[in-house]
Design brief:
94 residues, alpha+beta, Alpha-Beta Plaits, two-stranded antiparallel ribbon, 2 helices, globular, disordered C terminus, binds iron/sulfur cluster
Length: 94
């Protein structure tokens, strides 16, 4: 399981990045993203996701692939995550 930052909502405040125990959050030109392979949702370190706790605009959500009946928002966010890692082969809506 991993989380993802909605790049359309993120204001680039940077509050989340230093709190990640896995160094899963990085940024380029004020665009913050979470490496879904490195994010453990803080398991093993904290009871709750630290980035979610600190984010002032609540723009960090689950990066789990959408289910058979995905919400538009979740499907869109998942596509952003996949694009950011140049992994178009991983897109699946089955
Ligand atoms: S949930 Fe925890 S491990 Fe995942 S990106 Fe946020 S702070 Fe890092
Ligand atoms: S704390 Fe939220 S708004 Fe700030 S950089 Fe992180 S994801 Fe973006």
């Amino acid at each position: 399981m991993a989380l993802a930052i909605d790049s359309e909502e993120c204001d680039g405040c940077g509050a989340c990045e230093p709190l990640c125990p896995n160094q899963a959050i990085s940024h380029e030109e004020n665009m913050f993203r979470i490496d879904f392979k490195a994010c453990s949702e803080c398991e093993g370190f904290h009871d709750t996701a630290q980035c979610v706790l600190v984010c002032p605009i609540d723009c960090i959500h689950s990066a789990v692939p959408p289910t058979a009946t995905p919400t538009v928002k979740r499907a869109k966010l998942y596509q952003q995550v996949v694009r950011s890692f140049n992994r178009p082969d991983t897109i699946s809506f089955n």
